[in-house]
Every structure is written in C-alpha cells, then in structure tokens.
Predict the 3D structure of the following.
Amino acid sequence: MKSIDQFEAEAPILQKSIDLYKELYEYLKLFPKKDQYLLGKRCEEVILDFLEYILFAASSSREPKLQALQKANAKFDLLKALLRIARELKMIDNKKYLSLETKIHDVGRQLGGWIKSTSRISETLPAEGAP
C-alpha cells in the first residue's frame, strides 16, 4: 500500500487539493449556522469525493484512471459552482473567495493536464490485455 507521500510524488495535484480543502474547511466554519449544514456540508462532501477520485486515479491503470479523472472533473465543476453560489449569497466574502479561486485555478490546471495526458496515452497504447 502506498503512503500519502508516494501518492503526492506521483500526483502533485493531491497536495494542492488538500491545501484547498483545508482552506475551505476553515471558511465553512464562518458560514451562518443553517448554511453550515446545507451548502457548507455539501461543499465539504464534494471536495472529499474529489480527493477520493484523485487518490483512486493515482493508484489505477489507464482506463480506470481516466474514468476516475473524469468523475473527479465533474465533482470539481460542482465544487466551483457551489462556491460561486456561496459567494453570491455572501457566505464567503470576496477576499476569501479570491484566495480559494487561486487554489481552484491551480488544481483545475493540473487536473486538466492529467486528463489530457492520460487521454493521449489511452489513445496511443493498445488496450490492456490486448496482444
């Protein structure tokens, strides 16, 4: 079984994603009480699902990796939408949102690159188990 350090070495996106989660976690405490249990909880669930897909992708072979990355991308898009809603409803002020947005941009860039490189590899290599 791989350690978290081995995963981070293979998938640098993991550390950036963890940093994003930690910052978001601190901001969720500042949400109004009723929103902590609705939108705040949903944001936390989505980012944890995203991390789960990233960890799975880091330890998977080609096809399962691409599928996990595509699922991670969908979760990431949902997270961005939820955070935008939180900002529009003034649960997160603009300064905090911009800080999160910087991390989101970095993670999104890495995720897009990983998906693109995995897609190219899948297109150029024979299917697993093929002669």
Notes: The chain has one domain: 12-122. The mean pLDDT is 88. The CA atoms of residues 57 and 65 lie 4 Å apart.
